[in-house]
Amino acid sequence: MSVIKPEIDLGNHSFKNKVLLTLSVVILCSCFATGFYNISFDVLSTRWVAASQFLFGAFFAYTSVSLLCGKGKPWFGWSIVYAYIGLIVSAVVTFGIEKSVSMWFFSVPVVSYFVVSRSHGFILSILILILFTYMRIKYNIYETNESWSKTLINIVLPYGIIMALANAYEKVRIQNEWKLSEFALTDPLTRCYNRLALKSIYSSLQSVEQHTAILLVDIDHFKQVNDHYGHEAGDQVLKALSGLFIEVLGDKNVFRIGGEEFLLVLEGDKQTCRSLAESIRARVQTMDFYYGKERIPLTLSGGYKSITLDTALTDELKKVDETLYTAKTQGRNKIVYL
Prior knowledge:
Low-confidence stretches: none
Strand order of the largest sheet: 2-3-1-6-7
Order of helices and strands: HHHHHHHEHHEEHEEEHE
Strand content: 5-15%
Radius of gyration: 30 Å
Largest sheet: 5 strands, mixed
Number of strands: 7
Distance between the termini: 23 Å
Number of domains: 2
């Protein structure tokens, strides 16, 4: 199992939860209000309707409480959106397409594009536009004996504008969120993930069934490289080593967490992880790195530790950093295992 791609909430997730909570509460209140209204009639059919409305109300009471407690489920989004659309459709059917309640149809593209995916939102918006148009044409022909096309432009044109704007906004929002997320989680020099990215995926590393270890490595005598060859050479060393780490482990398993410190995530049984750690150390020692025409010898020291389920990231990093320091004091170019 490979490491999960790091993610960070830039505010959209929490805002979406607030929108879902608001919609869920609106649906909840509507279900109970209409349920109490229908149960007031001494007719069996309306009481069955009231019972179903109370049942739906109870479900959305559950979603509301879950969202309020921060325990929302992935499927809450589409279930709330579909219920919201159903509420609008039932209101229009009850009061008539000619009433102002039909204007609520125009909110569907905005809500759909924001809560569910763009493709899902597009399909829902088109289906509602078709239904909206059909209901208006039917009313024009059968209720008022008017031309079927009367007022349709006042439905299709503004609805289409709202839908186009919602689609464009959501496309730009997704692109910007991806760019900002990459900027926040990625080291600008090496393009590896950074310490914040490590924090975002650490809990997933603890939860995997497969044995997982972390290897904190530090380039030996890196300050001498900067002092003798210049910081440009040091930057090239960091890029070359990060490229080697990514080649061996994959881009999701490499994190630059300090100046010349990298944290590598190793997966497999204990023997496989240890062999992989030694392989990385040996490859660095034998790699041919040239700055200009001059070869710069490189070695690294490392501290190795298996991830435990009940240890916080800061504690794990502290322990593995102490192990790395031991490797440095024992002559460098070696890995100490904890």
